[in-house]
């Protein structure tokens, strides 16, 4: 064992001194980081390990509004074991009530891989039987043997579904499975109906799935086929998890950054407590290198202990979340330890500790014995070489964060913004100290004492400003964003949204539909538009299947798109390039596209886009680009055809109904279920409620991660104040010896903390509110409507917590008796 390590072991036996702050900050930060990365990894691990079961096969080929042709079926059959399903939205009639469901007609041995798990009962075997989702059963008190009606057929419940293959993840309607004869009996699948035929394929053992789907698309380029292989299973869940995980990761890294201030403070306090020991050892011939190893050993051992504790806490989060939020998550997290995520968190913790603790330890190891023994405040002086290791460690943290994130640009931008904000709060701390120096002579003696503490030698004003400011600004920003989104979902959207959306209205039954609405929803605003579906198959003659990757924002290339045709420009749309066609247009196919999608694909006016409608390719020239007010909540289509192209295709109608406020829609829904059972009715309130539940869960997770940052900030504050205990004790004793009362000394301390916290809290509120305003108005394109009373309460609460924490940390020094303090000096 080297001399430095032996000295470190002996030194640590004397106690950890100020390193308790390092232990606390690093444990909390690593625990938060490990929790976030472990949960994201656990969900991804489940998706990857159960991809075949989640997809229901190795490969899924799906097509909208039609079934495979004989030639396509033969090509699919040659790939492996095939299981077919036909899925559409439908309205189930349950007694006198109605419910939106995802209805699927499946083969008796469906799916090709994995299985449907039932809480009770069995799968449907005949045309009059159905298995229903657990949510539907619980909501309507259904059980095995209960009855429901789908379309034109009655069914008896034979099983309650717990899980089943679902390539997309989140679903807005509970599932119902029937046999293929049962689906035929409903008479819901008609020309123009919005249904999807899916063919799940189990490949022979050892067969590779890569490239099979693309080869099928190239063989049938005009068929409008969508390919999903097991590497893309639960794609919606995967994307949601990645983006949520990235957001939480950035918050956790922010908490770790705040914790680095506490780590630096702890290292400085620890080094100061060892100054006499270092001087004595140097007098006896100890080398600077051995003393640096001695100090580094103590810090390293405490850091490792903190990291291990943090990892132990974070490793349990997937199992806890899996049990607590099982009904909210479409995929249960893998409860086993996520070693890769834990290793990543440990590396982050080590790098941040190295960056924060290196400089104070290096300076302490170089301290001159003569100066220390004389009582001079000499920490070894500054050396630019001391900054090399912290800079490299900091760069390592940034590089690791960027390389492991799902969006490198967003992560880099956020890290740069956080660093800039840290400099802002550091500058604010310096300005506070300068202001206290300049105006500190004003007021009474108690006020002057309190303000002088902000700029005295060794004051932690700058460090505390950064720690408190960053944490509170983050909390204010997220509270403002979450409040605005909740206000939109809870007030604005329901207020201006139609009460009902209706799908699959047969064009031939438009007159009957309008008559039912006039009878049961008198005075309601009723709007109908033609509706079809089809995927984009080519851009300027180049097949979409030949693209190496789909650009970010080019969502119109993902799956089937809703299509319509219109003579007049829809409400809430504005042409920003090109021209809208005349109302009496009759000519070659023209389309109008959403401007954002066009930008993502670098399209221009006059380019061509090919869309497969019922398996037939239609190449159309782009006539205009539109901005779409998606918040209008009307029928907003990214792709609109000019008249004369789609009218002869079998299409259905979509409709919205906006009755007078407070009017009931139940009679109308029952009339549709009885007279037009093929129509699917969606209550906007149900969709908003489900989306709100998901967003509230996300908001709670973000708030919890932010509270970790606040907790670290409070810990840093308490530790920094505690580190100045000896100085505060000396000042307190001297003041008491000249006649000051304990109340006066306490008041001086309160003025110090109130001045520091008040200025920083105000700046944090301003910056946090500005950031929330930018995100809500520019990114989300929503009005900025936070819960102002709650938002304004945050800085006040933050200020009170900061003052209380600081006073509690300083109390032992303030309570010291002069005689006891002088004897121990």
TrEMBL record:
Entry-linked PROSITE patterns: PROKAR_LIPOPROTEIN
The keyword Cell division belongs to this UniProt entry's keyword annotation: no
Record's subcellular location: Cell membrane
Chain ranges of the ABC3 transporter permease C-terminal domain: 250-367, 705-814
Membrane-spanning intervals of the chain: 12-36, 247-270, 291-321, 341-361, 387-409, 415-436, 464-485, 704-724, 745-773, 793-814
Membrane-protein topology: Multi-pass membrane protein
Keywords, comma-separated and alphabetical: Cell membrane, Membrane, Transmembrane, Transmembrane helix
Positions of the MacB-like periplasmic core domain: 21-185
Name this protein carries in UniProt: FtsX-like permease family protein
Taxonomic lineage of the native organism: Bacteria, Pseudomonadati, Pseudomonadota, Alphaproteobacteria, Sphingomonadales
């Amino acid at each position: 064992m080297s001399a430095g390590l032996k000295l470190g072991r002996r030194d640590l036996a004397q106690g950890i001194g100020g390193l308790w702050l390092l232990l606390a900050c690093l444990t909390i930060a690593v625990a938060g980081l490990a929790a976030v990365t472990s949960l994201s990894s656990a969900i991804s691990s489940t998706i990857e390990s159960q991809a075949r079961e989640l997809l229901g096969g190795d490969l899924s080929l799906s097509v909208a509004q039609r079934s495979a042709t004989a030639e396509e079926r033969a090509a699919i059959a040659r790939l492996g074991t095939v299981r077919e399903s036909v899925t559409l939205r439908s309205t189930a009639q349950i007694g006198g009530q109605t419910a939106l469901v995802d209805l699927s007609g499946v083969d008796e041995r469906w799916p090709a891989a994995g299985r449907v798990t039932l809480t009770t009962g069995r799968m449907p075997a005949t045309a009059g039987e159905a298995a229903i989702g657990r949510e539907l059963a619980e909501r309507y008190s259904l059980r095995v043997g209960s009855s429901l009606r789908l379309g034109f057929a009655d069914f008896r419940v034979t099983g309650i579904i717990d899980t089943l293959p679902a390539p997309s993840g989140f679903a807005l309607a509970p599932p119902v499975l029937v046999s293929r004869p049962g689906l035929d009996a409903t008479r819901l699948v008609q020309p123009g109906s919005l249904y999807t035929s899916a063919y799940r394929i189990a490949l022979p053992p050892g067969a590779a799935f890569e490239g099979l789907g693309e080869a099928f698309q190239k063989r049938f380029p005009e068929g409008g086929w969508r390919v999903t292989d097991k590497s893309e299973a639960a794609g919606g869940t995967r994307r949601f998890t990645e983006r949520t995980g990235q957001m939480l990761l950035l918050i956790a890294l922010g908490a770790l950054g705040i914790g680095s201030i506490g780590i630096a403070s702890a290292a400085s306090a620890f080094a100061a407590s060892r100054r006499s020991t270092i001087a004595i050892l140097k007098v006896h011939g100890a080398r600077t290198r051995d003393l640096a190893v001695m100090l580094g050993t103590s810090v390293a051992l405490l850091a490792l202990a903190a990291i291990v504790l943090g990892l132990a806490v974070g490793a349990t989060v997937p199992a806890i979340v899996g049990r607590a939020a099982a009904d909210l998550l479409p995929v249960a997290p893998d409860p086993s330890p996520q070693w890769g995520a834990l290793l990543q968190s440990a590396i982050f913790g080590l790098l941040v500790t190295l960056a924060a603790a290196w400089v104070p330890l290096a300076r302490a190891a170089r301290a001159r014995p003569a100066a220390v023994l004389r009582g001079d405040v000499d920490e070894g002086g500054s050396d630019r070489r001391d900054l090399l290791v912290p800079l490299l460690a900091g760069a390592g943290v940034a590089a690791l964060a960027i390389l492991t994130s799902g969006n490198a640009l967003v992560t880099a931008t956020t890290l740069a913004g956080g660093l800039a904000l840290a400099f802002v709060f550091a500058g604010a701390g310096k300005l506070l100290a300068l202001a206290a120096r300049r105006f500190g002579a004003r007021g009474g003696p108690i006020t002057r004492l309190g303000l002088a503490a902000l700029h005295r030698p060794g004051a932690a004003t700058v460090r505390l400003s950064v720690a408190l400011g960053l944490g509170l600004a983050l909390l204010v920003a997220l509270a403002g964003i979450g409040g605005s989104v909740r206000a939109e979902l809870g007030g604005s959207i329901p207020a201006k949204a139609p009460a009902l959306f209706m799908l699959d209205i047969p064009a031939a039954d438009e007159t009957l539909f309008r008559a039912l609405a006039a009878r049961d929803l008198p005075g309601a605003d009723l709007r109908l538009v033609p509706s079809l579906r089809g995927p984009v198959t080519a851009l300027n003659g180049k097949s979409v299947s030949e693209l190496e990757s789909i650009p970010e924002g080019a969502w119109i290339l993902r799956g089937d798109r809703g299509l319509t045709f219109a003579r007049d420009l829809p409400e809430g749309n504005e042409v920003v390039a090109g021209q809208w066609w005349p109302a009496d247009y009759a000519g070659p196919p023209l389309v109008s596209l959403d401007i954002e999608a066009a930008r993502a694909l670098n399209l221009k006016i006059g380019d061509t886009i090919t869309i497969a409608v019922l398996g037939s390719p239609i190449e159309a020239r782009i006539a205009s680009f539109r901005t779409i007010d998606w918040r209008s909540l009307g029928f907003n289509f990214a792709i609109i055809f000019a008249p004369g192209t789609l009218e002869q295709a079998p299409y259905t109608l979509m409709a919205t109904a906006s009755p007078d406020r407070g009017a009931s829609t139940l009679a109308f829904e029952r009339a549709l279920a009885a007279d037009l059972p093929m129509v699917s009715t969606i209550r906007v309130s149900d969709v908003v409620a489900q989306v709100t539940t998901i967003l509230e869960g996300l908001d709670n997770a973000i708030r919890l991660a932010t509270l970790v940052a606040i907790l670290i900030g409070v810990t840093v504050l308490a530790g920094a104040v505690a580190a100045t205990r000896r100085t505060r004790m000396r000042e307190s004793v001297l003041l008491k010896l000249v006649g000051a009362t304990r109340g006066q000394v306490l008041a001086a301390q309160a003025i110090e903390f109130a001045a520091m916290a008040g200025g920083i809290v105000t700046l944090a509120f301003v910056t946090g509110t500005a950031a929330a305003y930018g995100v809500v108005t520019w990114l989300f394109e929503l009005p900025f409507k936070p819960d102002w009373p709650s938002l304004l309460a945050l800085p006040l609460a933050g200020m009170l917590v900061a003052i209380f924490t600081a006073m509690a940390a300083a109390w032992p020094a303030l309570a010291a008796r002069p005689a006891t303090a002088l004897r121990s000096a």
